[in-house]
Amino acid sequence: MIKKLFAILFCLQLFSYQLAFAASPTGTLPIIYVNTQNKQAITDTETQIPATVYIDSVLAQYPSLGSQAAPIPATIKGRGNWTWTGFDKKPYKIKFDIKQAVLGMPNNRHWCLMACADDYLGFLKMPAGFRISEATNLRWTPRVVPVELMLNGQYKGLYFLTEHVRIAGNRVKITEQDDNATDSVSGGWLVEIDNYKENGCIEFYEGDGERVWITIKDPEVLSAAQRSYIENQINTLNNAIWGDDADALWNLLDLNEAAKFYLVQEIMEDCESYHGSCFLYKDRDRNGIVDKWKFGPVWDFGNAYNRHQDTWIYDNASFKQYWIGQIATWPEFQQAVQEQWWIYYHTHKDQVRADVRAFADKIEKAAKNDANVWRGTSNYCDNSNFSDVRDRYFRRYDWRIQWLYSQWGEGIKPATWDVDLVESQESSVRSKKVLRDGLILIERNNRLYNLSGQLVE
Questions:
Q1: Which of 121, 143, 163 lies at the terminal end of a domain, its last residue?
Q2: What are phi and psi of 328, to 5 degrees?
Q3: Residue 161: phi, psi to the nearest 5?
Q4: H helix or E strand, kind and range, residue 216
Q5: Which of 57, 37, 55, 56 lies closest to 47 in space, CA to CA?
Q6: What are the Cα distances from residue 287, in Å, to 9, 392, 400?
Q7: Is the pLDDT of residue 77 over 50?
């Protein structure tokens, strides 16, 4: 009897220890402290709740933000659709009263705390997708820093502080509309192929009869003339995609950005990539030159690697993939994709793998802690055996690279490619990467080139 009592007490003590462990940050990542006014609960994605934020950087590479004694004023609300309603671990949107530079990321008021509650591959799908996007040199990729969240004094586990997709000089760098109350259409546009019908969205039908919804992200308030303009733009683009005039299409749609965006989605085997959270943007037209629509930035990788099928992401997809199946029939697009694949295969695939592995090492302890917090809750993804789920991600990445190689081989070497510009141990002495206007360029002999080897004027 005494032995049984000691055993019970030991188990209770161990359980209490586990609860205490799960309820505290590991101290291996920055800790973000969010306190709502009067500890008000965050119950929806619309209500902006007054809050304060301070961040203990923990790591020497980042400056802290505010302090416990002097936190930064902000508001917080829920964010997302399925990720908000389908999981106990919730994502959030933070809006500072004044622009803040956060954990090495540039000034802005708008930030996302991504929960990644649906990521069963060690929380690596979104960071990996973003890293592949950076490697392809898409014009802008959201930056992300892993953090541990303390919300109203409660430890909520591993989160990912991410730049919100919006028009800004250090984000989607296009000109905003001058005045939404006038007939001016001089500014830029940011829209989203959406799988939820939002108020004011544009509705049209693809050439195969599928209905598509486009949500206008910026500007949010439109005059009648502005709405007419953007509807005409989207319908003209849709008709060109399903038409037979190559000039009509590629004068509207940026071919290289479309190829880069698509390559990221194929490498991630994301069967929902053109179904929702698929952004497009265009800048204002200048001096009679029409700015083209561009796919990007990348965003949601929740359904990446969920099929594990030897096929293209638009074939037999779990979700209807709008536009891309038809775009892929254009020979100019296939040429551009294979050129981008050649660059990625020869210069980036191994480095991206190594970078994601380093990211995994950084979040391992917090990921295990997160598993203790959320075990047994709605749609719980068990990442507690972190080495196994991490290795499963890399098997999926390697498998996808191998399958794409079986289809494209090494791809097509761009005609303007200069092998001396490839970043390698041999060439690093002669060239270096620089960042200009959000683009990664290579400086060599006092001249700038993009990652395709083309001279940048």
A1: 163
A2: -65, -15
A3: -75, 120
A4: strand 211-218
A5: 37
A6: 79, 51, 44
A7: yes
DSSP 3-state percent helix, strand, coil across the chain (nearest 5): 35, 25, 45
pLDDT of residue 454: 53
Whose tokens are 């919006």? That residue is 166
Longest C-alpha distance within the chain, in Å? 90
Position 323, amino acid:
W
Residue 93 and residue 110: Cα distance in Å, rounded?
7
Q: What is the pLDDT of residues 156-169, one digit of tens each?
A: 999 999 999 999 99
- DSSP 8-state code for residue 436: E
Distance (Å, rounded) from C-alpha 278 to C-alpha 275? 7
Instruction: Check: pTM over 0.85? Answer yes or no.
Output: yes
Q: State how far the Cα of 136 lies from the Cα of 298, in Å rounded to an integer.
A: 11
Q: Hunting for tokens 């917080």 — which residue is that? A: 76
Structural domain of residue 140, as residue ranges?
9-163
Q: How confident is the model at residue 17 (pLDDT cuts 50, 70, 90)?
A: very low
- List, in sequence order, the alpha helices (H) in 242-380: 246-250, 255-267, 324-327, 331-347, 349-374
Residues 101 and 224 placed together within one structural domain of the fold: no
| Token pair of 450 as six digits | 């993009």
Q: Please report where in the chains the tokens 């304060």 appear, as a residue.
A: 52
Angle at 78 between CA 301 and CA 143, to 5 degrees: 45
- Check if the beta carbon of residue 194 is closer than 8 Å to that of residue 214: yes
Beta strands in 27-69, from DSSP E residues, in sequence order: 31-36, 49-56
**How far apart (Å, rounded) are the C-alpha atoms in residues 298 and 275?**
13
Report which secondary-structure segment, H or E, holds 408.
helix 386-408
Element (H, E) at 8: helix 2-22
Q: Give the residue from 296, 331, 347 where a domain finishes.
A: 347
Q: In this structure, are 44 and 158 located in the same domain?
A: yes
Residues in the chain: 457
**Cβ atoms within 10 Å, residue 25:** 23
- Residues 6+ away with beta carbon under 8 Å from 232: none
Give yes or no: residues 281 and 340 share one domain: yes
Residue 19 resides in a domain: yes
Encode pLDDT of 78-113 as tens digits.
Answer: 998 888 988 999 999 999 999 999 999 999 999 999
pLDDT tens digits for 372-382? 999 999 889 89
